[in-house]
From TrEMBL:
Location(s) in or outside the cell: Membrane
Membrane-spanning parts: 226-245
Region of interest called Disordered, as start-end residue ranges on this chain: 307-335
GO terms, molecular function: cytokine receptor activity
A biological-process GO annotation: immunoglobulin mediated immune response
UniProt-recorded name of the protein: Cytokine receptor common subunit gamma 2
Organism: Ctenopharyngodon idella (Grass carp)
Record PROSITE patterns: FN3, HEMATOPO_REC_S_F1
Key word Glycoprotein present: yes
Membrane topology qualifier: Single-pass type I membrane protein
Lineage: Eukaryota, Metazoa, Chordata, Craniata, Vertebrata
Residues in the signal sequence: 1-26
PANTHER family registered for this protein in UniProt: CYTOKINE RECEPTOR, CYTOKINE RECEPTOR COMMON SUBUNIT GAMMA ISOFORM X1-RELATED
Amino acid sequence: MTYIHTPRLYFGLLFLILSFQRCCSAGALSVQCKIINLEYVECIWNPNTSTMNYTFSSKFANDDSHDCQEYILKHNYTVGCKIPLKNHDQKFSKFQISVSTEGNHTFEKSFHSLKSLVQLKAPYNLSVKWNEHNSTLLLQWNSSTTLKDNCVVYNVRNQKDETQLSANVTKKSYSLTQVSQNKHYVFQVRSTVSGLCGSSDLWSDWSPPVEWGSAENISRQGWSQWLYGFLSVLMLFLLGLLLCYCERKGIILLPVVPDPSKNLQDLFHKHDGNVESWVHISRELKDAFEPDYTEPSCDVCEVTPSCEADPTPVASPAPQTDKCDEPSAAEEQSS
């Protein structure tokens, strides 16, 4: 009967699994290489697992193979390599790479040339100048590449309007016409290798943005927004103080109409409807309305017309005033 040592079996299975993972990770490598600013070649590999270190070697045509002298690390593991360029013409040469794992599993790849994989560094020192004579805006910048001026082309864009992208510019300056001073502009520049020196498919990153516009208009908008916000907060604060000060919230916008029945209760309950007593009219005011003179009495006499028609005119009775003024016989006797 054959006896199997269990610990050795487990160790053998673990070794096979690790070997298989390393083999698969080496076969699943994806290596991308590009030339940075015509100074060095940068190769980056993206394995499925980042818990393994790789060794890298490269070779240009008509040159010897060299091991990597400057690795790119991520979490203390090698993920890339930088290979210095001896001259600019090497970008036209065939380029071969080799990536090996710790288990001596090798991944190889070759590039016919790297001329279409040149990425320049972003332009810098971008400045904006306004020319009042011809109403144009002049943009100027610098480039860190060692290529000739006719080997580099540039793009200028306004970050506020993506449609305003200039055509390829061969100089380190660019003029803009029909620019409104009341608008706000944010300019950026990028560069690439022109077709005269082996065109590249890669553009550099955009330069740091530079703002330009009417300072008075921009500051006015900023001050107006700040002022509106401050007045709104102040208004809310004052309204809050008024609400806390008043006994009722409705007093501010809708005053309460007084109830007249409360004022007339004393008239009907205490003074029995006597307005003079309720109003508290003074005696002097009452006496002022009393008459202080007397008039003599006057008897009114009614004239009875004659029942028979008499053609002769009837003497008109004496005036009423005369008869009333003369004392009667009964009054004379009584006197």
